[in-house]
């Protein structure tokens, strides 16, 4: 089910684009993978800091960004020397030392750069959302066909978090009962704007605010929660309802600063509500999965399980759910899902990226699952901006 294949109007059944075996990246010898970072904004440098704490697994050898001041800031992460530095990612791909590449650029550039990285034979860690639109998602699946030695991992890191793995297990084993409602939020109180040293750089720096470059709040934030639901239930939404607007910051932006998306999963009998705004930060991040036997309430690094009253007498079941040796209830009747908060999900994701490169295995967050979420995000945005219901086209996939 995870290795769903995309077809029909993509021509996938005629075969993928292949390259010679000599160009396909092979697992490195013992020691760290030599990796390059394309895109040195907030996300790219955030990943660099995490990799800097994993010297046995990864060695950053090169960085690339079109903005010189970002390259200069990224160089400061290196405490022992200087990274090779490029303004043109194509020149970086000419560097034979690079074994793997991280792509953390504006969303509209994910696909063209990913194609060039794949065709260069490197392993690829491609930030979420995988692609800007549906056609690109389908084409990327087609391009990766037959490349079993080459790893493409998509940056939906919840698939690697011990907390979210435990919640997925709880869902799979029926501990929550019949799940019919899921409520998600990712709120902030701020305009999402970055300082612009030169007006000509407005769209290059504040790309998230412009439709030609960005999928807005749905792609940048809510895609993580959408991806987890796709993963946990091995499914995707069928119906997409949405509304929103530029309700807080009247500053020339095009992507909405206040959105609400409702997705319907008829096979599961489930409705999921996803909301994000830039006008209030009180709730921040919320993720509540509600079933007939109990509910989980999640942050990014910790979560609580709240059993329904009819489950309270079944202490053994609750022990099985939480993994705790002793049940400790808080004043609201909940108990921690894990005893301690987890690390940043990106840390777990890169630990697994290294493992998958070594073992030539399909990542949990791969081109197939990445495409399923990218299509979901695109259809949600289509409903959001058209003010019309969007529907999943069942010709996208072959189970």
UniProtKB/TrEMBL annotation:
Location of the Gfo/Idh/MocA-like oxidoreductase N-terminal domain: 33-156
Domain GFO/IDH/MocA-like oxidoreductase: 166-296
Domain of life per record: Bacteria
Pfam families assigned to the protein according to its UniProt record, in alphabetical order: GFO_IDH_MocA, GFO_IDH_MocA_C3
PANTHER family tied to this protein: BCDNA.GH03377, NADH-DEPENDENT DEHYDROGENASE-RELATED
Protein name: Dehydrogenase
